[in-house]
Amino acid sequence: MKIYLDCYPCFLRQALEAARIGKADEQQQRLVLDRALETLRLIEPWRTLPEITDRIHRIVRRTVGNSDPYRAAKETSTCHALALYPRLKTLVAEACDPLDTAVRVSIAGNIIDLAFNLKYALWETVGRTLSQPFAVDDRQAFREALTRAKRVLYLADNAGETVLDRVLIETLHMPVMYAVKGGPILNDATLEDALAAGVDGAAEIVSTGSDAPGTVLRSCSQEFRQLYKEADLVIAKGQANYETLSANGVRTFFLLQAKCSILARDAGVPVGSLVLKQGQRRA
Amino acid sequence: MKIYLDCYPCFLRQALEAARIGKADEQQQRLVLDRALETLRLIEPWRTLPEITDRIHRIVRRTVGNSDPYRAAKETSTCHALALYPRLKTLVAEACDPLDTAVRVSIAGNIIDLAFNLKYALWETVGRTLSQPFAVDDRQAFREALTRAKRVLYLADNAGETVLDRVLIETLHMPVMYAVKGGPILNDATLEDALAAGVDGAAEIVSTGSDAPGTVLRSCSQEFRQLYKEADLVIAKGQANYETLSANGVRTFFLLQAKCSILARDAGVPVGSLVLKQGQRRA
After folding, report:
1. Which of A213, B4, B14, B62 has the greatest count of CB atoms below 10 A from its CB?
2. Using a CB-CB distance cutoff of 8 angstroms, which residues of chain B are in contact with residue A30?
3. B43 touches chain A (CB under 8 A)
4. With bands split at pLDDT 50, 70 and 90, how would you rate the model's confidence at B117?
5. CA dist., res. A56 & res. A74, Å (int)
6. pLDDT at position B267
7. What pLDDT, on a 0 to 100 scale, did the predictor assign at position B178?
8. Is A281 exposed, middle or buried (CB count within 10 Å of its CB: 0-12, 13-18, 19+)?
9. How far apart are CA B239 and CA B50, in angstroms?
């Protein structure tokens, strides 16, 4: 997805929020803001949204001297989600269509995106997504692809959301590789977060080898690129994966909530929509 | 009021919105954004909020080649407010305390601030303000000052709000000078807007001689500065007047709604609060 002009104010807001989450003092916050202004002024207009997000958060980490400003926030998200895990399992177990419910649960987890909402109400979001119609609905194609696939490559998004991903993975009853970031970026899930969510009991956890938002293949490890190339079905969670991979072939299915008005407009759906979208054929 | 770091994303948003209201094309919008980024990067941290707002909107006017981007929006605001005028007059006429109701009506009009809300529901806001408690309540001091004053200098804020100011002015039953901006800035009222609202039937309209937001005395005309110096009671509408004049003496009363979270925090009140605040003694 291209950068829209409306993203610029949002980048500045994110820079400040991230600095404060990383416990920056007033002087560091001003420095983060100055450096973000300079970066935004010089940015080439053809850069993608996750690339700029990456640069902004590198500025924050370097300026604040904190390699993982979201560490405590990520642990809190995981802890809150784990408290709901038994209830989520019951929801799926008692559902007429367990796969459909587990897909909705996993998409509900995508509300835990600290780039857009510092506060979220996870259980209320689960309730909403259980009955909300899909704004983009490739569920049938997804079901068919699942029956044909031998295993799934599952691209994680945020810490905490990992717990709700685990519920979906446990419902798939097939081998899953769960790919997490190679290092901290925003509140994206890393190995540590996937382990804290107990995903290792349900899937093989792998690293993308990259700490860029989304999945920018050229910045991923050789091993991950090979896994990605060989995967016959990819589940990609969240906006950043959609922004970086959406034109990367029909074997990829994007599961997300449209949380930002710009992405929502780009995708032609209202804010708050549930999206299960099959990727487009490669150009 | 000093500039807070949180104001920077808001300045960028305002720059883009103003450019679009002025019918800027995509290229002009990008140019506005680039110039706003450059200005924000170089700004001295001791500048006041209205000063930066002024610079941002000068960039927009110059880049878009439109000396009054908000002209049509201002006319619409005035037109909508005039449609409510008979109902507002009835509200005041039938009130147990007409002055109190007229003050609330005037503060309700302060919702028409296109820097913060491109959309607003004026009649609903009037309904809310009629029963809402004041978060800062210097109404008693205001009443006493009115009984002592011979005439009032009334500093206008936005076009459309002018109609609701007229309702208050007509309730004061004393000579009022209504001061409007000397040129277009945002949707602030100018002579044209005050006349369209019919304020000339109730007050003598004067110009501040300045097109800066708020009332920056050093940028006002010599004539206005003299009027201001001699005024025994000043009614100052809206956030920008509060930001520029709040430490300018006890004869000034600020009537506003706290619409932005930063101003609200600075004033120690929740967003959406009604404020009638007496100015502080000069330092």
Report:
1. A213
2. 5, 45
3. no
4. confident
5. 19
6. 79
7. 98
8. exposed
9. 9
What is the nearest CA distance from B251 to chain A, expressed in angstroms? Answer: 35
Tell me whether strands A252-257 and A274-278 are parallel, antiparallel or unpaired.
Answer: antiparallel
By C-alpha distance, the chain A residue nearest B13 is A9
Structure-block tokens of residue A107: 């998409």
Tens-digit pLDDT profile for chain A (283 aa)?
567 899 999 999 999 999 999 999 999 999 999 999 999 999 887 888 888 999 999 999 999 999 999 999 999 999 999 999 999 999 999 999 999 999 999 999 999 988 887 788 999 999 999 999 999 999 999 999 999 999 999 999 999 999 999 999 999 999 999 999 999 999 999 999 999 999 999 999 999 999 999 999 999 999 999 999 999 999 999 999 998 887 788 999 999 999 888 888 887 899 999 999 999 877 5
Contacts of A248 (CB under 8 A, 6+ apart): A279, A280, A282
Q: What residue spans of A22-160 are helical by DSSP H?
A: 26-42, 49-64, 71-93, 98-109, 122-131, 139-148
Q: Is A5 on the interface with B (CB under 8 A)?
A: yes
Geometric angle at alpha carbon B49, from A44 and B42, rounded to 5°: 40
Q: Which residues pair with A2 in a beta bridge?
A: A48
d(CA A169, CA A156): 11
**Closest Cα in chain B, distance from residue A219 (Å):** 29
CB-based contact A210:A182 (threshold 8 Å): yes
Q: What pLDDT sits at residue A74?
A: 96
For residues B56 and A9, what is the distance between their CA atoms, to the nearest angstrom?
14
**Which residue of chain A comes nearest to B8, CA vs CA?**
A12
Rounded CA gap, B263 and B243, in Å? 9
Name the residue among B131, B134, B123, B159 with its Cα closest to residue B237: B159
In terms of residues, how long is chain B?
283
* Chain B contact present for A10, CB below 8 A: yes
In sequence order, the β-bridge partners of residue A153 are A177, A234
Q: Is A152 helix (H, G, I), strand (E, B) or coil?
A: strand
Contact A8 B5 (CB under 8 A): no
Report how far residue B40's alpha carbon sits from residue B14's, in angstroms, rounded to the nearest whole number: 13
Q: Are B228 and B217 in contact (CB under 8 A)?
A: yes
Q: CA dist B133 to A139, A238, B143, B231, Å?
A: 51, 43, 17, 29
Biggest CA-to-CA distance, chain A: 56
Residue B186: exposed, middle, or buried by beta-carbon count in 10 A (0-12, 13-18, 19+)? buried
Query: Is the CB of B195 inside 8 Å of chain A's CB atoms?
Result: no
ipTM over 0.90: no
Q: Residue written as tokens 């996937």? A: A194
